[in-house]
Amino acid sequence: MNRRRFFVASAATLGVAAIGTAAFVYQDRYSFIAEAVRRLMGHDYRVAAAQQKAFVDDFLEEYSDKRTAGLIAFQRGHELGLGSSFSAYQIDRFERELITHVVTHTDYLAKAAGDSHELSYLGRYPCRNPFAQFTV
Q: At 106, phi and psi to the nearest 5?
């Protein structure tokens, strides 16, 4: 095999590997966030589709596309048993931020235990207290 064929074969192999990895990692950001909230909140999380879309849009505005894509890759790695302590930390931190966002931007805390009504999304800035600091 001469150099030219070797180079073309190597480039083709790398291209196929990159496409395969991208297809493996790719998941719609909206469905990823919605599934994560349902998984973390359990049966208590019921919200109308339009309000869920507004919630996810606002969350993704604060949480960048690159961070979300990286987190999806970390999550997929953990599902396959390929995770590290760093990726576990990043997933845990993301889940905490997501739950904080759900609790502070919906009427979850105002809902009585066992109440069966759907949650309402209160908007991007529901708390008008200038001294409130919601940190993870």
A: -130, 175
User: Phi/psi at 29 (nearest 5 deg)?
Assistant: -60, -40
Residues 6+ apart with CB under 8 A from 51: 119, 120, 121
Ranges in the chain, pLDDT < 50: none
**How big is the CA angle at 66 (ends 65 and 67), to the nearest 5 degrees?**
95
14: left (phi over 0), alpha (psi -120 to 50) or beta: alpha
Question: In angstroms, rounded to a whole number, what is the distance separating the alpha carbons of residues 131 and 9?
Answer: 60
3-class secondary-structure state, position 15? helix
* Assigned token pair, 57: 């849009």
Burial 103-133 (b: 16+ CB within 10 A, else e): eebbebeeeeeeeeeebebbeeeeeeeeeee
Q: What DSSP element (H or E) covers 39?
A: helix 29-41
